[in-house]
Amino acid sequence: MNLQDLEQWTESLAERPREHLTTNWSEAARVLSARGLDNYAKGASALQGLGKGDAVVLAWIDAVPQVAREVGEDVVGDLATATLGFASRTSGAVIELVLATAPTAARRLADGELLLQYLQFLNGLLAQAPRGLRPMLGQLDTLFGQLTLGGLRRWANWGAHAHRTNYEAQIEYFGLASKESLAMLQKERKGTLLVDVQRRINMYLRALWGRDFFMRPTAGDFENREGLRPFIEDWLIHLPDAVDAVQGHEGLVDGLTLYRASAAHAAAHMVHTHQPMSAEGMTPWQMAVIGVIEDARVEALAMDKFPGLRKLWGDMHLTTPDASASAGDWLNRLARALVDEAYQDDHPWIAEARMRWAEVLPTVLANPEDNTASWDVGVALAHRYRDAVKGPDFHPRTDVLAAPYRDDNRYIWAFDGFDAERAASAGYEPQRQVRKHVNLMEFANEIDVETAGDDAQEIWVLGTELFPYEDMGVSFNDSEGKAPMAEPVHYPEWDHQIQLERPAWATVQERRPTLGEPETIDAVIDEHRPLVSRIKFLLDAMQPQGVQRIRKLEDGDEVDLNAALQAMVDVRMKRQPDPRIMMRSVRKTRDISVLVLLDLSESTNDEVTGPHAPPLRGSLPPEGADSVLGRPGDRVEPVPRQTVLDLTRSACALLADAMHKVGDPFAIHGFCSDGRQEVNYWRFKDFNQPYSDLAKARMAGMEGKLSTRMGAAIRHATALLEQQKSSKKLLIVITDGEPADVDVRDPQYLRQDAKKAVENATRSGVNSFCMTLDPRADAYVSRIFGARNYMVVDRVQRLPEKLPLLYASLTR
User: What confidence tens digit (pLDDT) does each residue in 60-70 have?
Assistant: First the structure.
């Protein structure tokens, strides 16, 4: 969006704010969407209309891009509303100070919801102590450096009540100029703030798991110093915004260590919990016991890779065998018994729990994705509690785990939600069309309804092609001109203007590929024989190497005789021997699935232009140049122009040949669209299909038509990749232009939707990479796929060469 598009809002600005807005517009456009820029301009116009001076508008223009960069643009509208609400109760200088310090508050709070709560706090403080707002804002950086939002609220409320009528003392208190102000500041100060250590925690988790986790602060200590427990929701790890040091077995555990323990435990849940357990029919006590066992399962898997985590977590389990006053005490004893091997607890229920856990632990370590052992052991122990313990009843609100690093386990449970099928049968939705799969006899004996159209209540699907009795070699589908379709799949679509997903908005229709001549693909391989020979060396390096011996280890499976003999020689020679005399045999295998997704829009039919394009049919070579087919001056043989689709087909042929030789499971799919309700999707070669003449014929029959609705196609490809059991999944998107469709006018709409689809794919464990043939793609492709996840091929003729080499580098 350009600034000229918002002239209806900017024309009301004074000369100085308008010039300042023009200067800052490019910076704002980097962090704000079209909706955010609209709110940005509207807010400036509204503040100009207050009549509080140009300084307020200038502060707004400077602050909004910085706030949006820290906590997102969703808060821009609320910031404008709150600022306009202050206008009737305070001066323009205070409003200017609120806006000027808003980036500081956003940076220290690091969350949009907390910033909105901070604005509500300012609104309340303006009613209680209006004289104290300005001096407090002047010390905001110091205050947020030591206090959480809850601590700041309690500190401010104490000063507002203590100096309600003494305005001079009120100003001193909020300006940190009085002893009681500093004393209350020290009292409300917490040990460690998440915003100060969040970067270190991110690096810690990346070092452990080799991936990034997203953390978000939560504030739950408005009335007291107790924060919220950690929890996981929407793939985000929610941690308290500040923590105090806690008691451990070996003394106090500082806040940074507590944050590390909490983040590592939550990350273990996200890594090793692939399928939540159903909470249907479970009692709160059963869920609590199963939760303890599930905590032990993910911690055992983490400690199996990183043994040092046992000390980190075990140091915070302080319960003793004497604790039995509540059901929560028994849960804490159970939790410590499963994580602390040195813990002595002779109670029969605890002993039975340890025995059952020891029996299933080998199965747990062998199958890290299976959490059924937690359910089985937890249910059995929950039933045994009544007979073996006969202890107090369980109260979910009070009987919680005492270990401060553990989350509330909401992530491991799946609760029943809205069922679309039940809603349809209950009359909440119109009756949907039913697709019924039948066999040949049912299909042949049923009476045809000639008037039935695409809105029929039932559609009968035959699993194979049906040919007429006459030996014509043409199926009914081919004669009718309609290819058999699989069931349509509905996917959500991200609307960046409302910042919400539209559910079931885009429909993906899988189509049957048109068959071509497989000799076309073989001819591509023959034509690029020199390139195939160059790639062969890369392919040999990528082949699995079988079993390899890793030598010079202090801890291994067997003795390395050569190293042991050398160590003995060093001992006899009175030299320091090398203690690395062991070796281990490691099996080297490739475990990757690759899906190549092709953009088959109408633009792929464009002819390739440029200095390296083939000559036009019947053209003469340049003067003085020898023709490869004759002497100078002779007319060259007709050479057809190549289209982008031809080069894409050639590149896929070379890539398929390379992946087939390496042995990686791969699939080649394509897509185009004609509006949101018809996103066509073709499977030229699937993972479970051999690379045969049929797959080559499908690739030879590729056609380019219609538009490019990339987000829905990426979601469908991601769903197919998720079904693969490979540990690494790669999606390679090949396109010649930006996302576009006939029913979308906003150019940012489908770009933002494709970006959201790529982010969702990343959360599902699918790595995405884009190879684009658009030389101007840098402006948008990096925002969609990431700064390092794309390649721009400015010379389309080099696509057949670039694509196999790219595959080799991505899967090395």
Answer: 888 898 898 88
d(CA 493, CA 495): 6
Over residues 412-417, the mean pLDDT reads 70
Distance between start and end Cα atoms, the chain: 41
The C-alpha atoms of residue 26 and residue 29 are separated, in whole angstroms, by 5
pLDDT tens track for 118-149 = 888 888 888 888 888 888 988 888 888 888 88
* pLDDT for res 263: 92
Give the phi and the psi of residue 674 in degrees, each rounded to 5.
-135, 65
Rounded CA separation 705/643 (Å): 13
Percentage of residues of the chain with pLDDT beyond 90: 13
**How far apart are the C-alpha atoms of 584 and 372, rounded to whole Å?**
33
What HEC string does 460-499 produce?
Answer: EEECCCCCCCCCCCCCHHHHHCCCCCCCCEEEEEEECCCC
pLDDT of residue 451: 55
Q: Are 765 and 775 a contacting pair, CB within 8 Å?
A: no
HSE-CB at 189 with a 13 A cutoff on CA atoms is 12
Where helices occur in 133-177 by DSSP H, the ranges are 133-138, 140-144, 149-162, 167-174
Pairing state of beta strands 236-240 and 231-233? Answer: antiparallel
User: Does residue 402 contact residue 329 with C-beta atoms inside 8 Å?
Assistant: no
Q: The dihedral of CA 173, 178, 180, 182: what is its sign?
A: positive
Residue whose pair of structure tokens reads 């004996």 in the numeric block = 445
Q: How many CA atoms lie within 13 A of 63 on its CB side?
A: 26
Q: How far apart are CA 573 and CA 562, in angstroms?
A: 17
Predicted confidence at residue 636, as pLDDT, reads 44
202 contacts: CB under 8 Å, gap ≥ 6: 212, 213, 215
Are 180 and 190 in contact by the 8 Å Cβ rule? The answer is: no
Residue 698, both tokens: 């499908």
Identify which of 215-224, 433-442, 635-644, 692-701 has the greatest average pLDDT. 692-701
278 beta partners: 414
The CA distances from residue 456 to 434, 462, 463, 488, in Å, are 9, 16, 19, 15
Which amino acid appears at position 679 of this protein?
Answer: V
d(CA 595, CA 684): 11
Two structure tokens written together for 751: 């770009």
Please choose, from the candidates 667, 664, 666, 662, the residue with its C-alpha nearest in 3D space to the C-alpha of residue 542. Answer: 662
CA distance 273 to 667: 27
The amino acid sitting at 334 is L
- Alpha-carbon span 29 to 617, nearest angstrom: 47
The number of C-alpha atoms within 13 Å of 575 and in the hemisphere containing its C-beta is 8
DSSP state of 615: P
Sequence-ordered list of residues with C-beta below 8 angstroms from that of 400, at least 6 positions apart, any chain: 229, 328, 408
DSSP codes joined into one string, 47-60:
HHTTTS-HHHHHHH
**At how many degrees (to 10) do helices 799-810 and 529-542 cross?**
0
Alpha helices for 129-272 (secondary structure H) = 133-138, 140-144, 149-162, 167-174, 179-188, 194-209, 255-272
Most confident range (mean pLDDT) of 535-544, 616-625, 653-662, 799-808 is: 653-662
Residue found under tokens 């090395």: 812
Contacts 24+ apart (CB under 8 A), 3-9: 3/41, 6/37, 6/38, 6/41, 9/41, 9/42, 9/44, 9/45
Separation between Cα atoms, residue 719 and residue 766, nearest integer Å:
10
- State the Cα–Cα distance between residues 292 and 327, nearest whole angstrom: 13
Q: How far is CA 301 from CA 110, 116, 293, 573, in A?
A: 32, 39, 12, 45
3-state secondary structure of 592: strand
